[in-house]
Amino acid sequence: MRLDGGMGVALMAVRAEWTKLRTTPGPAWLLLVTGAVTVALGAAVSSAAACARDGCGIDGVRVALGGVYLGQASVAVLAVLVVSGEYSTGLIRTTFAATPGRATVLAAKAVVLAVVVAAVGSLAVVGSLLVAGMIGLPRLSVVDGPMLRAAGGSVVYLVLIAVLGLGAGVVVRDSAAAIGAVLGVLYLPPILGTMVADPHLHRLLERGAPMSAGLSVQATTDLRQLAIGPWAGLGVLAVWSGGALLAGVLLLRSRDT
User: Fold this and answer.
1) DSSP sequence for 32-87
2) What is the pLDDT of residue 2?
């Protein structure tokens, strides 16, 4: 069946982006690193939490999913390179010539990236929980609502990190600078938070920083002690990601390339 008009153009753009992603070796390696690091770090943290076996009251689910803290870095790098790599090689001109609608190109990149990251993230999250369960962490029941929310929320978190990286790549265009900017936005606020003595300012930083707020979705115990609720925290990250993508769309339309 032949599709004409905007839908046909969008589908062709998605197919083109998928072809570029799967035929380039770099993305596959970064996705493999994402899965391996997420599961490996989660297993290491779970194994180190020996007190969990003695019922010390830790959040077993959050510990099991701790690998997302580092695994997100390779997702961010992948997302930036999806677009900045084309700028560095000049391929972006060919892409825009084939699909003149620049917003369509960026939307296609976002869709392909989101689907791939969601698939790899799901495998990594399930693997982390399975390994943690074998290690013996508590509160890892497949019928537990909070655990399902933490697991699903972690996958959504990784997808939003990918969108944030994609937007940053479009805005900055230079790979090294864009990667540094994204990783700085993610990891610098928690570091600065440890240096802030004012409790109100510290809590405000936790509520507004994309990583601190977004990873609250992994919490399954003591929710009242969180600086921000699980879904609200994920919403904060969504605002950061949406803002970066919107900025990318606006700049794509105003630039020559």
Assistant:
1) HHHHHHHHHHHHHHHHH-GGGGGT----HHHHHTTTHHHHHHHHHHHHHHHHHHHH
2) 46
